[in-house]
Amino acid sequence: MDLQNYTFVSEFVLQGLCTSRHLQKFFFILFSGLYVVIVMGNTIIVATVVSNSRLHSSPMYFLLGNLSFLDIWLASFATPKMIRDFLSDRKLISFGGCMSQIFFLHFVGGAEMVLLVSMAYDRYVAICKPLHYMTVMSRNKCIELVMLSWTIGFVHSISQVAFTVNLPYCGPNEISSFFCDVPLVIKLACMDTYILGILMISDSGLLSLSCFLLLLISYTVILINVRQRATGGASKALSTCSAHIMVVTLFFGPCIFIYVWPFSRFSVDKLLSVFYTIFTPLLNPLIYTLRNKEMKTAMRKFRSFYSY
């Protein structure tokens, strides 16, 4: 297709969450507070894991620290822009900014999916093969798992952006959300993108669904093993796994709904997008810290150390 026949779109208009000025002022206060809590909560977890030698040497907490680091980025790729837009009449984003949001969304989201699988594998080894745990989950193995998650996230993100950025955009330029994502952006291209859209959404859907199935299998095997061992250690393992399962459900539920089924009802998709980008990074530190005595003890020590 000859792109010289088209006027290049240099910016997009975001519809945002709502049009009511009163609601936008309320959302500005609400999401500003939530964003501060997300960044502070996850930063404290990362700092606690890094500063505590016992936690830093533990595979589970090493992976948890990396999860919190990713959650900070997941909450930051679009939330500050959304908060600022609540006070703006026209919610504009440049073409480059839009592509950057798509890149970071799929980079961080893809990396977090694979990291959650790695955390399930860590729990599987700890519960089903406890005598070999430190040998299997060595520091090098943990670093390899983290690097694998980042690599898969990067490759997945590049595949999404590479097709999206090269499409011809000549108007309209209004996106029915508060941030840019592939299904909403490619529908604005001046060409038939039905097949391309199916392929790109299938890419994200396949990653989400395959990771979710791996997690489902892993935790099923773990729960079967825990049920066969009616001991105190098993009950502690069950408590840890239940926290992981809650995070997995909260994270993958919206992802699978959005990318396995195409965007059709924007009100539902906006709600899921808010849950996926804001409430999941908010709930992760709450779930892991409130249900974990060792983490709470380490955080108290960290707080008391820096209070002097």
From TrEMBL:
<feature type="transmembrane region" description="Helical">
    <location>
        <begin position="26"/>
        <end position="49"/>
    </location>
</feature>
<dbReference type="InterPro" id="IPR000276">
    <property type="entry name" value="GPCR_Rhodpsn"/>
</dbReference>
<keyword id="KW-0807">Transducer</keyword>
<dbReference type="InterPro" id="IPR050427">
    <property type="entry name" value="Olfactory_Receptors"/>
</dbReference>
<feature type="transmembrane region" description="Helical">
    <location>
        <begin position="142"/>
        <end position="163"/>
    </location>
</feature>
<keyword id="KW-0675">Receptor</keyword>
<protein>
    <recommendedName>
        <fullName>Olfactory receptor</fullName>
    </recommendedName>
</protein>
<keyword id="KW-1003">Cell membrane</keyword>
<keyword id="KW-0297">G-protein coupled receptor</keyword>
<feature type="transmembrane region" description="Helical">
    <location>
        <begin position="99"/>
        <end position="121"/>
    </location>
</feature>
<keyword id="KW-0472">Membrane</keyword>
<comment type="similarity">
    <text>Belongs to the G-protein coupled receptor 1 family.</text>
</comment>
<feature type="transmembrane region" description="Helical">
    <location>
        <begin position="273"/>
        <end position="290"/>
    </location>
</feature>
<dbReference type="InterPro" id="IPR000725">
    <property type="entry name" value="Olfact_rcpt"/>
</dbReference>
<keyword id="KW-0812">Transmembrane</keyword>
<keyword id="KW-1133">Transmembrane helix</keyword>
<dbReference type="InterPro" id="IPR017452">
    <property type="entry name" value="GPCR_Rhodpsn_7TM"/>
</dbReference>
<dbReference type="Pfam" id="PF13853">
    <property type="entry name" value="7tm_4"/>
</dbReference>
<keyword id="KW-0716">Sensory transduction</keyword>
<feature type="transmembrane region" description="Helical">
    <location>
        <begin position="238"/>
        <end position="261"/>
    </location>
</feature>
<feature type="domain" description="G-protein coupled receptors family 1 profile">
    <location>
        <begin position="41"/>
        <end position="288"/>
    </location>
</feature>
<keyword id="KW-0552">Olfaction</keyword>
<feature type="transmembrane region" description="Helical">
    <location>
        <begin position="206"/>
        <end position="226"/>
    </location>
</feature>
<feature type="transmembrane region" description="Helical">
    <location>
        <begin position="61"/>
        <end position="79"/>
    </location>
</feature>
<comment type="function">
    <text>Putative odorant or sperm cell receptor.</text>
</comment>
